[in-house]
Structures are given as structure tokens and as C-alpha cells.
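User: Hi! I'm working on a homework problem where we have to compare a predicted structure to a textbook description. Could you give me the structure for the chain below?
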Amino acid sequence: MPDSSPRLLSILIPAVGGQGGGVLAEWIVSAADAASLRAHSTSIPGVAQRTGSTSYYIELVTGGDERAPAFSLYPIPGDLDVLLAPEFMEVGRAIELGFPSPSRTTIVASTHRLYSIHEKVTTGRGIYPREALDAAARAYSASLVAFDALAVAREHDTEVNAVLLGALAGSGVLPIGVEAWRQGIEDKGVQVKANLRGFEVGLGLVGSPPAAAPVLSHSPGTNGSLATSSGPIDDDPELRGFSESLRPVLRLAVGRLVDYQDRRYAGRYLARVRRVLDTGDVELARTVARYLAVWMTYEDAIRVADLKTRAERFERIEAGARAPGALVNVTDYLKPDLDEIYGILPYAVVAPFARWAERRWPHGRPSLGQHVKTTTVLGFLRLWWLGRLRRLRPISYRAHHEHARMERWLEAVTRCAAWDVELARQVARLAHLVKGYGDVRRRMMACFDALLEGVLQSATREGGLGGGFAVSARLADRGRVLVLQGPAGETEALAATADVLGRLERADRAGALARLSAS
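Assistant: Happy to help. Predicted C-alpha cells:
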């Protein structure tokens, strides 16, 4: 005899604006109604996008008599049947709040990431480790269904919430038949055809045989350094003088530099890498090659204009609009400051004005906000002509200073290589600090200059003491890590550098190491 006692099932959907959490909740309620189940939903708004998600909470009741049940307006920690997350960090937030239970909760989630404000504002790589989210999701779920629903949705021209609804249906955790799920989408009446297509895809993924079941997967992100390729390497005559282990990096770098400027510019890059390779340390040369390629392709106003007027950009925008035949208007919001404006002009012409401007506004130059309608003829030509000024780049004010700083860095690397291999490698990694735009870049470059000079002074003093360069190598490493943590870390890095130099002046190597360990 079937059990007719009432049973309450709870579903939590944490989502931010634009993820379709509200529609997803309505689909579930409509499907429950089609399956003759009593259901209730509510939502608790968050503060803002990426600083607080809206919590959509649903309760279903199966069995029991005709008396109306008393539904809760919000979830209870540890008493959740389904956690349905349109983005993977929402799983982590729900776990932090104690909602899922390893003995009860089924987690259905998309593994793609939309980075939070805290992850974005970190100067270095502040992205929360995906492996930690994976481990937590597995530890705090009775069953886990996780896959990149965004990639699946894009592949099938549908939406993430529809794919996740299909995955929820395929998991079988709720007593709702497939036809009831489909009817729920149809009753809502929102892009029914596309959403039914997404539902079927999600249903098929979870309902497929075990060998083809969805698994947690991800694609590695980048941290601003040059990625490498393990594919076959063409016999490029420019790279024949370099070792096989260096060629994957160099081949990508040359293509990037030619696209940025020209082949002559790429030749200048290879000559610089060869100088470092002459030290005999291939690993050091590989590190320099990666950071130097990124540095030499710094994004000035010319580069930005060039990228914004490329055909593939407009094709990507039109594809993302998902409205074939529709008129797509693009407005670019630009706010270059004085440094970026006169930075593309010839050094000999603007150097006096630039020096005056830096004295007049020492803590940041004025900016010029503008809205450029790139899909109009005049707006497009305005940026297109700017992008064609790359021939001015080698003699520009910005190039003069960027390449002078590169040469100081390369000279420091080769100089340190004659003293100590680890010290040279750590000095090479200081180029990781070369990043950002406007005030952020000026601040980072000031830290880079101070750290580079401090490490060289430290190495000179430590060399006079004998016994290696452990303090100087540690100073370069720790200083870089601190700066990448943000403004507070920048202040600590500069303070630690001054303290270390003072201790080495007193021949206190142990005290210098202790100071770095404490920072």
C-alpha cells in the first residue's frame, strides 16, 4: 500500500540578476501544479549583483489530506532537499550558510564562474580555487550533479536555467514527471521553444548512461601571463637558435607581438630573450619570455581602438545578442586620462608637457569621458583611425618609458643571474607586478621600481656579507606577493624592504629573514 503521509520537499535557488532564478522558480511551481502537488515559493532579495544573491525558496508537499499546509518563507539550515545553483560560487555561499546537508541535499549546479567583486578587485590572482568548491560540494551533498551549463546553453542556443531545470528533472529527486516539467515551461510562455530545447539537453545529460554522465570539469583561467601550447611547433627560422623547451612560449609570443606591432618588434623581443638565455638558465629565460611578451604588448589607446574595431568583435557581439537580423547598436564608454592621451604622441614633442602635467597632478591626471557609437560610420572611423596609429608607437612617450623600464629589469635579471640562480628567477617574476590601467598601473609601477631597486641594494649588501643571497631572493618573492594583495600589501612590502635593507646594513641576516617571515 503506497505511503500517503505528507512529505515536504524544499528547494533553494541562489541567483543574481540576469541568471533567470525567478523564472526557474516559477517553472518548478508550475510543474508541481501540473503534477497535482501543492507548492509555494518566495524570494529574499540580495543587496546587489555579486555582493548578494537573491534567494528563491520553494516548498512542495506530497501526499496528506486536503488541509492547506503551513509553508515556510525561508530555508532552514541543514533542512534542504535541493540546492539548484546557476553558478558554482553560489554553492560555496550556501555551504557557508549551512543550508545543504550531506545526508539529505541533492546539489544541481553549473560549474562556470561569474567572479565576485572581491575576486575582481584583488591586484593579483584572487580567484577562489575551483578545486575547493568542488571538494566542498561533494562533501556537503548526498548527490551532486555539476557541469558547465553555460557552455551547454551556448552550444544549443538556449539558457542556463532551462538546462539546469532539465538536469533537476533528470536527477529524479522531485516526484514530478517529465511531461509535467515540460508543461511548466509551456505555461510560463517565455521563449518556450528555446527553453524546451535547453530542458531536453539537460534532461539528456543527467539521464544518460553512467559512462556519459556529467562530471565536474573546468577550463583553466589566465592570470595575465602568456599561456603555452603543447601542440606541434612549426619550423620557424626565427626560433631555430632557441631550445625546444622555449619554442612553445616564443611561438605564441611572436604571433602576439606581430599582431600588436610588426615583425621587427617581435625581433626585438627575441633579441632580449636571447640575452637572458645567454646566462645558461633555460628556466629563467622561459620566465622572462612569458612576462616580457605580455609587457611589450601593453594596452595603450592605439591597441584598445584597434581591438574595438575588428570584425570578429562585432561578429561576437551579434552572436551574443541572439537576435538574427536585428539591428545591434554598440556604444563604447571610454575614459582616457592625460597619460593615455599624450602617451601615444612622439616623446620629443610631448615630453615637456608631460613633465609639467606630472608636477601639476602628481596623484593622477584628469580624464576625458566619452561615449563612442562604434556601429555608426563616424564613431567607427574615429576609433579605426586611432588604431592605425601604431606606426607612432615606437617613438611615443609611453613606449620611451615602458622600454626604458624593461631594460632596467632585464639588466637586473642578467646581473643577478651572475650571482645566484634563485635570486635571478625571483627578480624576473617581479614583472608580474606590471599590470593595470591609469592610477592602478602608476601605483603598480611605483611598487615595481621600489622593489627592484630594493632587491638590488639588498643583494649588493648581502653579497658583501658572504653566504649566499637567501634574504634578497626572499625579499623579491615576498614583496611581490604582498603587492599583489592590494594597497595594504603594497605599504607592507615597501616597509619590509626598508627594514630588510636596514638589517643587512647592520649585518643582521637572521633578523632580515625573520622580518620577511613576519610580514
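For your comparison, note the following. The longest strand covers residues 7-15. Residues 276 and 411 are 9 Å apart (CA to CA). Good luck with the assignment!
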